[in-house]
Each structure stands twice: as C-alpha cells, then as structure tokens.
Amino acid sequence: MSTPSDANPESGDHESGDHESGDTAGEFGPPTKDPWKSFRGVMAGTLILEAIVVLLALPVVAVVGGGLTAASAGFIIGLAVLMILGAGIQGKPWAMGFNVALQVILLFGFFVHPSIAGVAITFGIVWGYLVYLQRDIKRRMDKGLLPGQRD
Fold it and tell me: Which of 67, 84, 93, 102 has the highest CB neighbour count under 10 A?
C-alpha cells in the first residue's frame, strides 16, 4: 500500500515504481559516491585560486595604483588569508554563504583599485555558477537522478 509520501504528485500514479523522472520518495537510495565531497573540493580549490589572484593584485596596486598603503595592503592580504582559511571550512552547511560574502567584500576592493573589482566580478560569475550547480545537484539528488541512486 502506498503512503502519501510515495505518491507522484504530477502524474497521480501511486503504484508504479518505474518513473523516469524519479519524483517518488522510496524508489532510490543515496548516491553510491558522495557528490558533495567533490563539490566541496571544487569550492575549496576555487577559493585557493582566488586567493592567489587577489595576492597577485598587490604589485598591480603598488605600481599602477597610487601605491600600497597600510589599509590597501591589509585589505588585500587579509582577504586572501580569509579565502585560504575558508578553503578549510567547505564542509560546513554555511560555507556557500561565507564564500558569497567574501565576493561581496572583494567587490569593495574597487575603492582600493579598480582592478580588484575586476577580479571580484570575474570570480563573482564563477561563484554564481557554483551556487547554481549546488542547487542543481541538490535537486537531482532529491529526485534520484544521480548516478548510482537507482542501481
């Protein structure tokens, strides 16, 4: 006998377990490989790469900008350190919010030098895509569409 949680709300079919869309709850298990493990690695790697790019902005600000001040150097180095430390917390449930907050802070680097805003916009696009991927993986996992969930 089906329970309401086993029902497919779109088709009204409560009997068949052979749905291609995978919207019934009891038909699939967790994926055989944890998709979040690799996704956390992608986020941590992106933060490390971003920290390197932000640190490479130091000579740009020093030569092209008005020179490095204690405030501008502190902003750039401090943000890079936060990014490196942030790479280690990607397993936390609030990690994506932390990553997006770093992007917003980096955008304020425009006041240090416009090239910092260019880095912020570029990596903001990357993080926007990662937010999309996170939602897509969650949606696919909930529907049972990931490899290994129906085996």
Answer: 102
Residue 76 and residue 109: Cα distance in Å, rounded?
8
Alpha-carbon gap, residue 108 to 110, rounded angstroms:
5
Per-residue pLDDT tens over the stretch 131-143: 999 999 888 888 8
Domain count, the chain: 1
Please name the residues in contact with 52: beta carbons below 8 A apart, sequence gap of 6 or more.
none
Domain that holds residue 61: 38-142
Residue 149 lies in a domain: no
Q: What secondary structure does DSSP assign to 60-81, as a single string? A: HHHHTSS---HHHHHHHHHHHH
**Is 7 inside any structural domain?**
no
Query: Could you report the per-residue pLDDT of 90-110, keeping only the tens digit for each?
Result: 999 999 999 999 999 999 999
Please state, in angstroms and rounded to a whole number, the distance separating the CA atoms of residues 42 and 45. 5
Q: What angle (nearest 5°) sits at the alpha carbon of residue 29, between those of residues 27 and 30?
A: 150
Asked whether residue 23 is assigned to any structural domain, the reply reads no
Q: Which residues, other chains included, contact 108 with Cβ-Cβ below 8 Å and sequence gap of 6+?
A: none
State if pTM tops 0.70. yes
